[in-house]
């Protein structure tokens, strides 16, 4: 299956779920480099989907593309550029394809002159910094994949559904780059995800109770790890703060978190930057926290990307989709009891391009 076919399937499912037809869609948001169409991507996707949008754009924010699309679509609707916008991401994956040689894409592995931000190397440095500054331990970070895997046991679409793990399993898995073990690193897979954004007025005529975009924030501070202002605080602190203020809420008002989780350390820092615990307190907090749907603050009830899988940039959109399903009461076996407010986050390579959304439904 091609990336375009995955985009088409996810887009069609979202449009049908909204009770619409393709003729109702007059805006289109996609991610960069959709595999088969590296140039003129919006036109290629629109043609493939049979759409003729009045507004189209590419959002290139790495793992923050999904939530970044949502607030941009809302802004386009508010500006009168479109009425209903399809936001879609998808990525095919050939299981026979060998990993790309670092020599073909050195920016992925080193910082200039050693490269810009190779994912494993850079996030390992962030984890090392957090450990050095705050005393965070490997056992504490291992709590993230273990507790999210427990959530994935309720999600039949998760890559690791039915495969529980323990702290010992995580610490015994191969060291990818110290201190990060294989089970703390995101699971690549193929897949697609899409949402439809429209005005509050039009949403009233659709088959589901609407989920509202109550607040949004975005912050970019760097691209290369060497240019990061600080390794133990990400731009999410600013983005989340802006989203909270726009929504007129605080962290204590949240019912659950659907937060980007490409590595265990990302969840740890996001918990701190979201004000769930104090800076440097993520390690002990993770030891005590309950991520499950029965807790007072569930985290990634679908299992997150560590257990559900990361379909390239569509992985970040998966967090938006999960938040919408939970708020609508459509999450089936993993449904949280009566959630009203959710925080959704996305981030680019090495916590550099950050987007935060507050989604909710009427109380």
Helical segment count? 12
Question: Uncertain spans, ≥5 residues at pLDDT below 50?
Answer: 98-110
| % residues in beta strands | 15-25%
> Which structural class best describes the helix and strand composition?
alpha/beta
Q: How many domains?
A: 1
Spatial order of strands in the largest sheet = 2-1-3-6
Order of helices and strands: HEHEHEHHHEEEHEHEHHHHEE
Instruction: Give the CA-based shape.
Output: globular
- How many beta-strand runs? 10
Give a short account of the largest sheet: 4 strands, mixed
Determine the CATH topology. Peroxisomal Thiolase, Chain A, domain 1
Report what the structure shows.
With 363 residues, the chain is an alpha/beta fold. It has helices at residues 3-17, 41-49, 65-78, 119-134, 138-152, 167-172, 200-203, 236-247, 264-273, 282-288, 304-308, 314-328, and strands at 27-30, 55-58, 84-91, 175-177, 180-181, 191-198, 212-220, 256-258, 341-347, 353-360. The chain has a four-stranded mixed β-sheet with strand order 2-1-3-6, with helices on both faces. Helix 5 crosses helix 9 (264-273) and helix 5 (138-152) crosses helix 10 (282-288). It is globular and about 55 Å long.
């Amino acid at each position: 299956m091609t990336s375009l076919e995955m985009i088409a399937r996810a887009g069609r499912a979202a449009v049908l779920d909204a009770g619409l037809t393709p003729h109702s869609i007059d805006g289109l948001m996609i991610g960069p480099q959709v595999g088969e169409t590296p140039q003129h991507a919006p036109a290629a996707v629109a043609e493939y989907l049979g759409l003729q949008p009045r507004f189209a754009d590419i959002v290139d924010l790495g793992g923050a593309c999904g939530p970044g699309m949502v607030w941009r679509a809302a802004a386009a609707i508010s500006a009168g550029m479109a009425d209903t916008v399809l936001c879609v991401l998808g990525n095919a994956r050939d299981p026979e394809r060998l990993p790309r040689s670092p020599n073909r894409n050195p920016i992925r592995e080193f910082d200039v002159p050693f490269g810009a931000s190779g994912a494993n190397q850079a996030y390992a440095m962030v984890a090392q910094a957090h450990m050095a500054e705050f005393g965070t331990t490997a056992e504490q970070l291992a709590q993230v994949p273990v507790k999210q895997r427990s959530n994935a046991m309720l999600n039949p679409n998760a890559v690791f559904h039915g495969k529980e793990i323990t702290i010992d399993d995580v610490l015994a898995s191969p060291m990818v780059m110290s201190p990060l073990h294989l089970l703390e690193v995101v699971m690549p897979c193929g897949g697609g995800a899409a949402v439809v954004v429209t005005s509050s007025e039009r949403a009233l005529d659709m088959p589901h109770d609407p989920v509202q975009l109550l607040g949004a924030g975005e912050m970019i501070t760097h691209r290369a790890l060497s240019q990061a202002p600080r390794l133990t605080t990400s731009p999410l602190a600013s983005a989340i703060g802006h989203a909270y203020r726009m929504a007129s809420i605080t962290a204590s008002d949240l019912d659950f978190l659907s937060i980007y989780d490409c590595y265990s350390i990302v969840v740890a820092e996001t918990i701190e930057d979201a004000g769930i615990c104090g800076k440097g307190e993520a390690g002990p907090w993770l030891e005590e926290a309950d991520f499950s749907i029965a807790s007072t603050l569930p985290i990634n009830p679908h299992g997150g990307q560590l257990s559900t899988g990361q379909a390239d940039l569509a992985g970040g959109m998966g967090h938006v989709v999960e938040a919408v399903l939970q708020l609508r009461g459509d999450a089936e076996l993993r449904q949280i009891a009566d959630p009203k407010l959710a925080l959704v986050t996305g981030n680019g390579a090495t916590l550099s391009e950050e987007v935060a959304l507050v989604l909710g439904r009427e109380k």
